[in-house]
Every structure is written in C-alpha cells, then in structure tokens.
Amino acid sequence: MSRPDTLLPLFAALSSLPGVGARRETLLARAAGGARVLDLLFHLPDRLIDRRLRPPIAACTPSQVATLEVTVERRREPRSPAAPWVITVSDGTGELDVLLFGKGAARAGLLPLGARRLLSGEIRLDRGRLVMPHPDFILPPEREAELPEVEPVYRLTAGLAPWEVRRAVAAALARVPELPEWVDPALLSRRGWPSWREAIAAAHAPANEADLAPLAAARQRLAYDELLAQQVALALSRRRFRTLRGRPLGGDDALRAKALAAFGHPLTPSQEKALAEIDADLAAPNRMLRLLQGDVGAGKTIVATLAMLRAVEAGAQACLMAPTDLLARQHAATIGRLAAAAGVTTVLLTGRETGKARQAALAALASGTAGIAIGTHALFQEDVRFRDLALAVIDEQHRFGVHQRLLLQAKGGEVDVLVMTATPIPRTLLLTAWGDMDVSRLAGRPPGRRPVTTLAKPASKLDEVVAAVGRKLAAGARVYWVCPLVSESESADLAAAEARAAALAKRFPGRVGLVHGKLGAKARDAAMADFAAGRIGLLVATTVIEVGVDVPEASVIVIEQAERFGLAQLHQLRGRVGRGREASYAILVYDDGASEMARRRIATLCETDDGFAIAEADLELRGGGDPLGVRQSGLPQFRLAELPAHADLIPLARDDAALLLARDPELASPRGRAVRLLLHLFEREAAIPTFRAG
Asked: Are 649 and 430 in contact, with CB atoms under 8 Å apart?
C-alpha cells in the first residue's frame, strides 16, 4: 500500500537533506539506525551541553563545561608534530591554557595575541593548570548570538561529528509536516501534551535535563504515538483473525486418556484450566490464536500434546514448529512417546531429514497416516503437504516472524494456532508483544520439579567452584558448565568455551564434553547423548542448551560470566536442572568488576525462582535499555517508548484503540483518518488493508 503524499518527505533518503553526501549519509544511518529522514527524527538526544555557565576563570572546576570571555596573553607554538599549540588566556581573575592538537592546530589563528574572545568547552586540569583542550566554540564577543545556550547531544558513530548530526537534524525538522491530530483531544488536554510536530521539535531542543526525561511532555507524547500505532495494529490483526472462519474440533478424550496414562502424572489445576481454555477455542467456529505462557518447566509440552491429540481425535492433523533442530528433536522424543501410547504416529521434519526418511515422513503426512508432525522451519517448505492440518503449535514464537506463522497456517484450510513461550513476560509487556492473542498462563511447578538452590560466586573463587563440581561428579552427578556466547564476539567466545572445556578436561579426564552452535549436528548429538546416558558427567556448552534440553539426571549448572546474561536468559538456563529427584544447584560466576546493575540482577536470581517475578524485576532493573534482554527474548524494541517509564501508557493506548475501533471500525472519521496516517508513520500499514474501502 502506497504511503500518503504528506509523509513522503519523512521517508525520503537522508541524502535528500542539504549537506548530506554519501559518506555522511552512511554515518548518520549507522548512528540513527536507518537511512531515512524519519530515522533521524526518531534518533532523540540523550544528553545536553549547557553553555549558560559563565564563571570567572578563578571559579572554574575540572570536568565542567564553561563559557568564558577572555584575552589572549601568550602563544606557544608546538615543539614537535605531536605537541599542541598552548595559548594562554586570562580574564583578570586567573589564567587558563587553550590546547590545540593535530588538525585542530589550524584554529590557532582564531586566537591572535591581545584578542578578546568567547571560548566554550570542557575545563580540565593538566599538571596543576586549568586547560581547555579544543574549545567547542571560539568567537569574537560581537558574535555571541551564534553561541547556543544549550546543545543536544546524540549517540554518534566513529567518524561522525556532533555538529554533523545537529545540522542534519535541523534540516530534517524543517521537513516535518503539520499532521491531523490522532490523539483523543480529552487525553491531549489532560496530559498537557503538545501536537506531534511540536513534540518532535521540543524533543530535539531540550532546555534542561528534565526535558530529556521519559516523562517530559514531548517524550511522553511521542511514546504514546508509537504505542497507539502498535495497539491499533494489534487490535486490527486480532479483529481480522477473529473474523476468519474456523472449524469446531471436538473429541471423546480417548487418545488423551492413553497419553496421560503414559505421562504418569495428573495435570495440575493450572494445566487443566489452560487446556479447558484451549478446548473452548478449538470447539468454537472461529479460529483460535492463543498464547500458552509458562515458566521454565511449568508443563507446557503436555498441554500442547493434549491439544494436538484433540485435533487428531477430530479426524485431522496437528503440527508443532520449534526454532532449533535441538528443540525439535527434544519435542519429538517427548511428544512421540506420549502419542505412540495413544496409537498416534508422529514424524520429524528438520533440515537434517533427507532421502528416504524425509520422503517417508512427507508421504505419511500427505496420506494422513501421521497425525502429528514436529519440526523446524522445514515444516513450511513447499513440498510439505498435510492431508488435513487443523492445529499448528508454535514453540518460542518470538524466534519466528508473523509471516512464518502465516506460511504454516497456509498448510491447512482453517488452522487454529497455539503459540508457546517459556520466556516469562511482565503483564505490561504482554500487551505489547502478544496483544493480538488470548493468553493462558501456567503457574506453579508440576509434580517432580524441585526448586533449584542458586549461589553467586566471584570469578576470583573459580577454583572453589571447580572443586565443588569435582565433588559432585565424584558423587555421580551430571553438571552443565555454560560459557557466554554473544554475536559481537562469537569467535572469541567460542575460543573461551573451547579453552574452558580443555582446562576442565585436564582436571577431569574422560568426563568432559563440549556443545556449541558451530559444532556439526552429529558431533553435537553425540555429546548430548553421552551426557544424557552418563558416559560423560560434565557438559561445557554455550547457550545452545537454553531451551529444550531435558536431562533429568543433571543437577548442577555453572554459568560463567553471569553478568553478561539478561535475567530472563539466566532463569531459562537455570531451568535445565531441577528436573529429577536430586537436589539441584545453579552457580552464577560473575566478574569481580561486574557493575552494580549486574550484581543486582544476579542477587534477584538468587532470591527467587518465580519466573514472572524475575521478569518484572528484569523490566525494572533494565529499564528502557533492553528489558528482558529484548534481543534475546524477541520482545518488541521501541524507537520512542521507554519501559518501564512509559508502562502506564500501554493500557491507555490499548483502551483508546479499542474504543476508537468500536466507534469507527473502518477508521473513516476525521480522527480515524488521522490514525491511518499514524499507522503509516510507524510502518504499521499492513493492518490497513483489513478495511473494505477508503
């Protein structure tokens, strides 16, 4: 769908701005996170420089930014190419040296002997003397009007000067059009918010520190716009899905009863409630789109298995899609055993199934011989055909896009969708990440799951940790040792994991295995099988074991450099133990120089094993930086909204969106048409084709 002409200047390339050539466009795009004018407008300043402080030199203190009116007293040329110009200035109360190095030395001509000048920059102390290295401004007093009282400071990238960003932002602001108001007038008045155009301008022109705060009126207004766009889009998506015809799926529970008997435990009240909610959706004439949210080990898999067996009882088929080969195989083993007890055939489809095995699986699905398929992205490849797919279960949905969900649904006629996540999500973020879904939440711990004792140890006591691991191995325990792996330094991290495995193998010969994402599938499977069978007792791994690995005999997990992980991910990793009868332990090893924030995260994990409480704490601790480890968890990353500071705006936007669409379902009113512009502005226009016209 084409964008309205009004918005085209905002979606133009940065190179369309005056003074922005190819080099500067590349650098600005890198800093702003995009190469369009709009990206630069959404790149808000995070600090400011206040040049209103005008102390006498005698009252200057190091590290402050000061503006001084001075006289040039002495000039000393550089004695070598590496030395600076030293230009001594005074104001009658004291002296200060201006230092000009390298290319900056060309500015020495702006400070001739005896001249009166305005200098503005940071004061520093060098060998007992006050200095100002490379003043930001050197002006004759009569040009004082050119000196900004307050300057916004933006995040930069290497090679980009602050003045280049400020000049480009000024040019971008000149492009901002007057747009019709999409915020409810009563809310606008109650909150004292400016118009959108005024808000963008004010956010880029902070007068003081308070203007940079998330609760400043301009920043609140912009955050609300982003959240409203999201909530309207989610509401439209939800409405569209609810109008899609489904088909009622019912059954006599015969298959379920056999599977439950093989499972060996009764369902918890929480599992029974979630299954009843799923059954009600499956029995309804419209399609199901439900999120099954459960903490680590809460028992989501048995609920999903029973839901899939309901589809089979109704004479149809079901599938489960997992994000990794490892998790798909784990599901195939667990679900396959329960389905087999019920007489239902399951097939596994991942990138590793080839040749005759793959052809047999495809034939079983096409003929209907197989009632359940479990796999990865391979499930929605073109040659995968179901006889009658009625239910799709998607595990760890955040690792898939909506487009992939639609591809999977397209494998059947009227497919119900159940999404699962083991990432506990704060209630606030639930509205943003999953607002188009109904939610079932599993609480509590199923039978057989034991609490995990969590301990924190500084890296300086690593020898003690290794000794404790040795004692556990001697007693027959199985132990995970997790090394961090982040994309920014993947090769270095892999080397660290390999080095740790080698060091531990020297200490415990014949007892240590290694698993990481770069390892070939056969080698990884062999190491996991050796660990599960007890042929090795200590498995060194990267976060490849974060989800889906189920070895009940594992009772200890050591997480090295725990400060590098988000709370949610630490909690996921901890969930690899506590699955058997043995008392279980998680040992978090952190760098002795870890930040206070990192130590608080680790302390939180030691205090509670309630994933939902941890998720709320993570949101509070991380704030807008990266709640829950957004990049790890797949939760939405906002450009303008900051959480938790703007958390109260989310339900407000959700209610506003619901009321607006109830009154104006086609968004045909003046405010409705303005909201259409808003959807385009935040690139949520995919929701707009749900309308019949206009």
From this structure: no
